[in-house]
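step=encode ok
step=design start
structure_in=
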């Protein structure tokens, strides 16, 4: 099956520092090993969001006010731009637009005449700018300044420094704050890492459990079945945030007056949800996913669900790519079911093929009392071809007793010669129905497999409600608006008896 690896974050920053055009992974930096901010630098670099130059990160170098404005702009994505009233700001400079956008947002004020974009930015200036941008001035503040040099902090920075200190965002300070000292690249990274646990800059639907602050700066976000232990900070270009069936333990800090809608469950109040840039109309006849993200956990590499609404089973799906499988060892490793590829259609010529390990796999699984189903990798472009694929499944299943579904697994193939390129959604749904009806008429249970993009942008899910649905999405929590019976949550599972990676699944039982 198609392998997708969606990591714990959507890309949260395009770059952090733009002094170099070449982004370098953390393990290529020659100057971060043993540095006090190494962990933060590595974490952010692993997501491709920090830039180094010539093999070095230069963690202890200072940055300018113009660079700081650009960092914040890339995080917040402000859209409004103020008129340039600053005598020292060249409109053609690369940092001019970020400075003017931060000025319009009330984050970077200058003195009305000068904004000093090429001056190095001090610690207190950077803290104030971050506090304004992220709405931290709306958080409770003790007013306490636990630094030996607190008296040196300017009056206009006291509240921001105190708030950041209250929440340990400035844990890199060692007894003193040194407010007028230029802040370093490492200190900026560490501060951002302390403040922001999750940052969503792209539009879409998100399901997650976040311990810490979540920052949203895309134009629209749908937070679904989630739990937020910290604050939700809404800023930048955000216009609408919908929070459904979610727990927010902190505050909602709405820095840009976005439209925020909070729902227990969407019972008709909202007629669209989001998938990337797309507004997806809600299909009310299709069951919805109401499983809270906080009920999911990975234990020894296996997905577990502790909600009271479903019992679950743990399974795998395999094909000839797993080669020779020791099914006795698989059975002893806690695998409750297996879905085995029976065959596939070629994506260029369209010929039908039997998976070369199908017979050995189904015999081995059944001999070790593992219940099985099968899937067919479809490239059907007509209903007749879908029926032909279903019939091939039926022909080979006569000799076996299967308990699990026969699955229509149609996927796009990213090659220019694929015969399925530009497949029409109505026709694809026709093919799925034709396959499922043929399987059902023969006395078996059909099922449809799909990832999020194909399911939401191509299939007509309202026509598939009679059949179980198998959702493929490689995230820690199922980010899918509609309900599903099986979830393929990773392609990188490990099971005794199988060499290498294997797809892992969880089944939900009423």
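sequence_out=
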């Amino acid at each position: 099956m198609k392998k997708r690896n969606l990591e714990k974050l959507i890309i949260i920053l395009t770059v952090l520092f733009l002094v170099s055009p070449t982004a370098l992974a953390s393990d290529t930096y020659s100057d971060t090993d043993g540095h006090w901010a190494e962990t933060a630098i590595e974490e952010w670099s692993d997501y491709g969001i920090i830039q180094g130059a010539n093999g070095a990160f230069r963690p202890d170098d200072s940055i300018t006010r113009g660079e700081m404005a650009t960092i914040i702009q890339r995080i917040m994505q402000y859209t409004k731009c103020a008129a340039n009233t600053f005598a020292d700001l060249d409109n053609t400079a690369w940092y001019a637009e970020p400075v003017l956008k931060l000025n319009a947002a009330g984050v970077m004020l200058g003195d009305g005449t000068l904004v000093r974009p090429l001056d190095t930015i001090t610690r207190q200036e950077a803290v104030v700018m971050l506090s304004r941008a992220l709405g931290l001035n709306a958080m409770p503040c003790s007013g306490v300044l636990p630094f030996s040099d607190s008296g040196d902090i300017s009056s206009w920075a006291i509240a921001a420094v105190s708030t950041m200190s209250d929440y340990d965002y400035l844990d890199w300070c060692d007894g003193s704050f040194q407010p007028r000292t230029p802040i370093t690249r490492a200190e900026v990274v560490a501060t951002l890492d302390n403040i922001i646990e999750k940052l969503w800059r792209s539009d879409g639907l998100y399901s997650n459990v976040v311990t810490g602050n979540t920052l949203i700066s895309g134009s629209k976000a749908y937070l679904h079945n989630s739990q937020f232990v910290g604050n939700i900070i809404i800023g930048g270009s955000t216009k609408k945030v919908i929070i459904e069936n979610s727990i927010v333990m902190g505050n909602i800090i709405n820095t840009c007056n976005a439209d925020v809608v909070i729902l227990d469950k969407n019972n008709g109040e909202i007629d669209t949800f989001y998938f990337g840039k797309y507004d997806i109309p809600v299909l009310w006849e299709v069951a919805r996913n109401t499983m809270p993200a906080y009920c999911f956990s990975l234990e020894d590499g296996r997905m577990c669900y502790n909600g009271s609404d479903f019992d679950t089973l743990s399974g795998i799906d395999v094909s000839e790519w797993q080669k020779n499988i020791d099914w006795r060892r698989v059975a002893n490793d806690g695998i409750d079911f297996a879905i085995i590829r029976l065959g596939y259609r070629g994506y260029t010529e369209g010929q039908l093929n039997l998976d070369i390990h199908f017979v050995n796999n189904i015999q081995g699984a059944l001999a070790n009392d593992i219940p099985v189903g099968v899937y067919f990798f479809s490239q059907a472009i007509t209903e007749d071809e879908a029926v032909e694929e279903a019939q091939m499944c039926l022909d080979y299943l006569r000799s076996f007793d299967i308990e699990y579904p026969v699955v229509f697994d149609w996927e796009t193939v990213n090659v220019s010669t694929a015969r399925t390129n530009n497949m029409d959604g109505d026709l694809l749904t026709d093919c799925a129905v034709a396959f499922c009806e043929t399987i059902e008429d023969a006395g078996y249970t059909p099922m449809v497999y799909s990832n999020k993009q194909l399911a939401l942008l191509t299939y007509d899910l309202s026509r598939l409600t009679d059949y179980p649905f198998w959702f493929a999405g490689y995230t820690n929590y199922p980010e899918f608006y509609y309900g599903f019976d099986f979830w393929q949550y990773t392609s990188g599972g490990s099971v005794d008896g199988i060499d290498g990676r294997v797809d892992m699944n969880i089944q939900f039982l009423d």
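step=design ok
step=annotate ok -> The chain has three domains: 26-195, 202-281, 293-509.
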